[in-house]
Structure formats: structure tokens, C-alpha cells
Specification:
Length: about 525
């Protein structure tokens, strides 16, 4: 009955104020178990949850765990008295906001009250209290605490918005870095302000991501054409070198050395010579084995038996190989749009294949299988390139890879008795080898950059450009026939690039909103987006 009456009386406050003293968590601190039990029962009758502590150390231990709304603290206790408890609460920042009502039967009550208030106590209650006094003191203290809690929450949320503004002002940021979701959940003006700020930054972020995607797609298309056009000359140049008497190993060694020198020169000009760390060397060694040795020896052997046009057409399957491998390894997410774009490119080169007539008529079934191995090696190579260390420049990486590949090939040549350097190369063969090395070195360096910025699946479309470029170089260098349909196929391949699109910028993408004297800038000047490595 007492609890019901106390509850009814204490719920009579105004609706726009914090809920008064009802249903709070109260800690009673008293070394006298009888006094503590009596006070706890009375507080419980008022509708509060009650816990007791026998002395100051136990009280502090309980308070550090949190969840206490108010403390009823006895002053006279052995060991650590109430005054010392108040001092300790004042030293611990997390406990300073817990209100304390001092309960004491000391005769010098005025001095006790003054000293307790000086040490941070909220109110005073004599041990000879009655229910009305206890209810009033608890109600007043808890109401002030809840006002203070609301005020502290408000100030903390204001501080969160201030930090978010500083993050925006400081430079590149991502919306998640603002950390104002809890403020936006408030049902007041501050919450609406946080919600608007969060939505605004999300809109700007998504807009800049779309702009970044368009820019990287255009950049990627241009780079694919450059790299694919250069690498597409490899079958024709390899066949020319074979016809001029160059052996597979010696052509591969000369090509790697020439390309390495050219890439070292570019890296030095850019001021990004390679750092010879263990991780960088391991990466370059793996790529050198896959691409610089296995692929180029395989290509030179196949090029001596199979037409360059046939090699280029078969190599177009590389794009789908990369797509499937990347999906199986969870490197990039597959999508219907990407399948459509890759399928469009495959259909384009397939159309040229039909126009060319049956391929491989001059080579047996075994040689056709060997030719199919070339795009499989390149698919693995494309995925391996995605693990290039961020501090390794693409031209420096290519130079290291080609040097290592040349060294490995020299060892293989010496072990097998094959010549490793052209002993009596004709001027024409020398020109072919230099052109071969330059084309391969630049193409590989550009491909590394494409993989880093646009992803392995987008870079895998090099196969389509390489195919069409191979047909064109075969016509120019070897006199092979180029159907007019190939030009239409090139247009279809480029359309496929825009459908596949580069890998979407993820957590590494950030935006910058200039603040201050740039506040009047035009939209194109006022916000910029960038991807961080």
C-alpha cells in the first residue's frame, strides 16, 4: 500500500519534464546491517530498486560497475568513512555525476552538512527521517539528476556534431567517419540537424562515387586500348622473330631485357625506383615465373606453329576466365551487367572469328590446345597482379619482373643447351626484338595500373582489345587479312567496357568539401572525391 501511495504521489509532475523520482536504482551504504535494511525497505516501498553496500570500499566497487542513480551514504563508518567516499568519488570522473544524499546521526549536523556539501554531496538526510522527508529528498535529487543527464547527453551529442564538422573541414572523409547516427536518432532539433547533415554527406558521397566511376571508366577504356594494342602486337612480333631465326628462349630473354631497361628508365624519370624489400621481390618473382617465363616461352613456341590471328582470337577467352576465377575466389562480385558486357565483347570477337573462317586449319588439334593455354596463363597473371604491393610503382615492378624473368630464362637455356642470346642477329631481328620488348614492358606496366585502379575483371577485358589488335598487327606486319567487320567488333568491345565498368570504389573512397573562403565555389569546384590507397 505504501509503495502504491508513494508511486501515485510521485507521478504527478508535468509531462514535459523528466520523470520524477520513481523506479530509480538506489544504493544504500551503511556498515550497520539493521539500519541499512530498514532504509532499504523504506526506499523499496517508494517504488525504487535498492542495493546495499557494507562500507565504503564495497560501495565504490559497486558504483564502478555503473547503473546506480543515487547513493544514500552513511557518514560514520569504520575504515573508510562517508567523507572519504565522497573524496574518492570526486577523483573518479565517471563517478562524479552520481548524486549522493548523506545520511547521518552526528550531533554537529550543520558542520557535517557543510563538509559533505563541500565534498560534493547533493543533499542531507538525518537518520531520524520520516517517509515524507525521504520521498521529497529522493524526488528532488533524482529529478535534478535526470535533468543533468539530459543536459550531459545533449552536450555530448553537440560535441559529436562538432567533431563531425571538424572531420568534414579537415579534408577527405567518409560518411561513416562522422559517427552521428546516434545523434540523428534524437527526436528534437539537434537530431534533425544531425539527420540532415548525415543525409547531405551521403548524397555528396554517392554523387562523387558516381563521378569517380565515370572518370575511372573513361580512363580505363583508354588504358585498355593502349595496353591491349601494345600487347596485341606480341603474336605478330613473335612470329616475325621466329621466321628471322630467333629461338624461343633467346627471343624471350632479349625481350625481357629490353622491356626492363625501358621500364627502369620510366621509373627513374618518375622518381619511383623499386624498393628491394622481400615482399616486393617475392611478388615480382611470382609474376616473372608466370608471365615472363612460362607465358612468353609458350607464346614463342606456339607462334612458330600457329597463325597470329588464330592466337589472338583464341586469347579472347581470357576475359571470361578472369571473371570466373575472380568470382570463385570472391575477389570481385559478379553481376548481370558485367556478364552482359563480357558477353558482348566475346560476341564481337566471335563474329570476327566466323568471318575469318575456321581457325587452326594450319595447326593440329594439339597445337590448338596449346594455344588455349595462353589465355589461361594470362588469366592467372591478371589475378596475381591484383596483389601488387602498394608501394611498388607499376613501371618499377615491371622492370623487376622482366629482369627476374630474363635471369630465370638464362638458367633454363644454359641447363638445356639452348642459346640464350642471339649470336648473329640481323638488323631486322634486332629491331623486332627491341620493338617486342618495348611493347611488352609498357603494356604490362599499364595493365598493372589498370588492375590496381579498376579491378581484375575490368582489366581482364584486355583480351578483347588484344585480340582485335592482334588481328590488325597480323595484317600490318605479316600481311594477313583483316576483315572490315573487325572495326565494328572493336566498337562492340568498347561498349562492353562501359557495361562491365571498373570495380566500385569501396571504403578507400573519400570526399572533400572545402570550407571557409571556398564556400561560394561552384559545385564542380566545391566538392571533390578521391580514392586512397
Amino acid at each position: 500500500m505504501l509503495a502504491w501511495v508513494a508511486g501515485r504521489e510521485l507521478q504527478g509532475g508535468r509531462m514535459d519534464q523528466p520523470s520524477p523520482a520513481y523506479g530509480a536504482s538506489v544504493l544504500v551504504v551503511d556498515d550497520d546491517s539493521l539500519s541499512a535494511r530498514k532504509l532499504a525497505m523504506t526506499v523499496s516501498a517508494l517504488g525504487h530498486g535498492v542495493e546495499t553496500a557494507r562500507g565504503g570500499p564495497q560501495a565504490l566497487e559497486r558504483l564502478r560497475r555503473g547503473g546506480i542513480d543515487v547513493v544514500l551514504l552513511d557518514i560514520v563508518m569504520p575504515g573508510m568513512d562517508g567523507f572519504e567516499v565522497l573524496r574518492q568519488l570526486g577523483r573518479e570522473g565517471r563517478l562524479q555525476d552520481v548524486p549522493v544524499i548523506v545520511v547521518s546521526a552526528l550531533e554537529e549536523e550543520v558542520e557535517t552538512v557543510a563538509r559533505a556539501l563541500d565534498l560534493g554531496a547533493e543533499d542531507f538526510l538525518p537518520k531520524s527521517y520520516d517517509l515524507t522527508i525521504l520521498r521529497a529528498r529522493l524526488g528532488s535529487t533524482l529529478t535534478k539528476k535526470r535533468y543533468r543527464d539530459r543536459e550531459l547527453d545533449y552536450l555530448r551529442d553537440v560535441e559529436s556534431l562538432t567533431r563531425a564538422a571538424k572531420v568534414i573541414e579537415a579534408g577527405p572523409f567518409r560518411p561513416a567517419e562522422l559517427e552521428i547516427g546516434h545523434v540523428a536518432a534524437r527526436d528534437d532539433a539537434l537530431g534533425r540537424l544531425a539527420a540532415v547533415l548525415g543525409q547531405l554527406t551521403e548524397v555528396i558521397y554517392e554523387r562523387e562515387q558516381r563521378s569517380d566511376m565515370r572518370a575511372r571508366t573513361l580512363w580505363g577504356v583508354i588504358m585498355l586500348i593502349v595496353s591491349g594494342g601494345l600487347i596485341g602486337s606480341a603474336p605478330a612480333l613473335g612470329r616475325m622473330a621466329a621466321e628471322l631465326g630467333g629461338g624461343a628462349i633467346e627471343v624471350s630473354v632479349a625481350t625481357n631485357l629490353t622491356g626492363a631497361l625501358a621500364c627502369f628508365a620510366v621509373a627513374a624519370w618518375r622518381g619511383r625506383l623499386p624498393k628491394l624489400s622481400g615482399r616486393n621481390l617475392r611478388f615480382c618473382l611470382v609474376v616473372a615465373e608466370v608471365f615472363g617465363c612460362i607465358y612468353w616461352v609458350w607464346l614463342n613456341v606456339v607462334a612458330a606453329q600457329v597463325e597470329a590471328t588464330t592466337i589472338a582470337l583464341v586469347s579472347s577467352s581470357r576475359s571470361f576466365m578472369v571473371f570466373v576465377l575472380a568470382a570463385l575466389m570472391s575477389l570481385e562480385r559478379p553481376s548481370g551487367r558485367r556478364v552482359l558486357g563480357l558477353g558482348l565483347g566475346l560476341a564481337a570477337v566471335g563474329t570476327v572469328l566466323v568471318a575469318e573462317g575456321p581457325v587452326g586449319t594450319q595447326a593440329g588439334f594439339g597445337w590448338m590446345l596449346a594455344t588455349l593455354g595462353l589465355p589461361a596463363i594470362l588469366a592467372v597473371h591478371t589475378l596475381v597482379m591484383a596483389w601488387r604491393p602498394k608501394d611498388l610503382d607499376p613501371y618499377a615492378a615491371t622492370a623487376l619482373m622482366m629482369i627476374l624473368a630474363a635471369g630465370l630464362l638464362v638458367v633454363v637455356g644454359l641447363a638445356s643447351g639452348e642459346p640464350v642470346f642471339p649470336s648473329d642477329a640481323s638488323p631486322r631481328l634486332a629491331v623486332v626484338l627491341v620493338a617486342f620488348g618495348l611493347a611488352v614492358g609498357v603494356a604490362v606496366a599499364v595493365a598493372l595500373e589498370i588492375v590496381a585502379r579498376a579491378g581484375a575483371v575490368f582489366a581482364g577485358q584486355l583480351a578483347y582489345v588484344q585480340t582485335l589488335a592482334g588481328i590488325g598487327w597480323g595484317m600490318i606486319l605479316l600481311g594477313e587479312q583483316l576483315p572490315l567487320l573487325a572495326w565494328g567488333a572493336l566498337g562492340m568491345v568498347i561498349l562492353g567496357f562501359f557495361l562491365v565498368q571498373p570495380r566500385r570504389a569501396g571504403e578507400e573512397f573519400s570526399v572533400t568539401i572545402p570550407i571557409g573562403h571556398h564556400i561560394g565555389a561552384t559545385p564542380s569546384e566545391g566538392v571533390t572525391g578521391r580514392r586512397t590507397a
